[in-house]
Amino acid sequence: MGDREVDQQLVERVQNGDKHAFDLLVIKYQRKLARLLSHFIRDAAEVEDVTQEAFIKAYRALPSFRGDSAFYTWLYRIGINTAKNFLVSQGRKVPTIEGVNNEDAEDFEDNSLLREVNTPESELMSKQIAQTVSKSLDILPEELRSAIVLREIDGLSYEEIATIMNCPVGTVRSRIFRAREAISEQLRPLLGTSKDRRW
Question: In the 8-state DSSP scheme, what is residue 156?
């Protein structure tokens, strides 16, 4: 039985009055959702609050969940919308660069190659790349940042991202391409790569 089927069974149990089943969904997705939201909201306490609020909204909306999409796709959409609403209510549009967790960028597969050689130079280079990727993510427009984070960090498919972002798959592909181009443009001076190479 796959993740989606397990989640669907838990959702049905919640819909039938089993509150413990929702606890299992929270345990399963709390860290993933918080990690996603930390790309929009930098303060850890605020991320925790918004994550909790997203789960409360999901719990209240669960009776109307029909299973047209995977539970986590539906939950991520609620989480992103909750984060957007929070930022608007705080008068903030774009997260500040302060308090960036540079380790976020280490989830990118390309950086794992750099971490294999543990010389001081390679560790410094790896850290600079992580900082550059993290700062690049911060300055991306929101729709590009959402798409690239969902794809590269959370590992979602284009179809799942399209459902979360409520747009066609082609738009998702375009946003991810543009985000990758913007990030590679920032990395180019650091890596000394030519314009015709992305990394």
Answer: -
